[in-house]
Amino acid sequence: MLSQTGEHSGSNTVVGLYRDILRNEGVVGLWAGNGANLLRVFPAKAIVFSSNDIYKKTLRTTSQTPSDQALSTPLSFLAGGLSGMTASALTYPLDFARGRISGKLGAAGKKAYGGILETVRLTVKDEGFLALYKGVTPTLMGAMPYEGIKFGTVGVLESIFPHEGDTPQPLKKMLYGGLGGIMAGLITYPNDTIRRLLQLQGSRGTSVQYAGYWDCVRQTYQKEGIRRFYRGLTINLIRMAPNAAVQFGSYEFLKQWSAKWF
């Protein structure tokens, strides 16, 4: 996020940013925003996976797709995209708080925003309640292709390589999910950069202002060109592969476990 937002003074390399964090904020700075992230992940991923199952069931019925046949790629994409938008809409303030806490490097051991409640309180105090939804438009715009590509990729791989033999299904889902996470992260990253920049506008210590989504795109491009939209992409992809793999593998394992015991 620091590489993405540019809200730091120093190197843009991964090693340089780690060094800056440790010097300014100490070891705990490496977990800045993780509380908000954990609170966000629990309901967000629960909503994504459960609503995806619901959307897939509905689309299977409307398209008259047999239960033993995989959904078509467009329908898998649509189900994933709708589930992503649903989760993003319901949990956005937590994502916003995480963005503000993690997206700015602290100065002299003090961050502009500390915990979740403090971030929400200061934001409402300085900018009003609606400020908690800054960046929600690109978030919803990005949720459709991001989760759509992720779930769609898993659906395509499942149709190409149907489950058979002794390979555990959760293990296959981990592999497919990891590939889906890489594809989604690679394609939707520029939009993610814009939403992070919009989340930070108006925050303490940040002077840049944008009139809206396209103004943010225009200003960002004029200042640093197309490469600016991809800053931090490499470390994001390294994070996304295991992240998505664990999500899909865990969900499949827990579904099998719950079906066996409940």
Level-2 CATH architecture: Alpha/alpha barrel
Low-confidence stretches: none
**Number of helices in the DSSP assignment:** 9
Provide the domain count: 1
Corresponding CATH superfamily: Mitochondrial carrier domain
Helix/strand structural class: mainly alpha
- Relative helix content: over 70%
| Mean of pLDDT | 90
Q: Please write the string of helix (H) and strand (E) elements.
A: HHHHHHHHH
- CATH topology assignment: Mitochondrial carrier fold
| Percent strand | under 5%
So what's the overall shape? elongated
Radius of gyration, whole Å = 20 Å
CATH class: Mainly Alpha
Spatial separation of the terminal alpha carbons? 41 Å
Largest sheet features: none
Total number of β-strand segments? 0
Describe the structure.
The chain has helices spanning about 1-5, 15-25, 35-60, 75-100, 115-125, 135-160, 170-200, 215-225, 235-260. With about 260 residues, it is mostly helical. It has a single domain (about 1-260), classed as Mitochondrial carrier domain (Mitochondrial carrier fold). The radius of gyration is 20 Å and the shape is elongated. The chain starts with a helix and ends with a helix. The model has no long low-confidence stretch (mean pLDDT about 90).
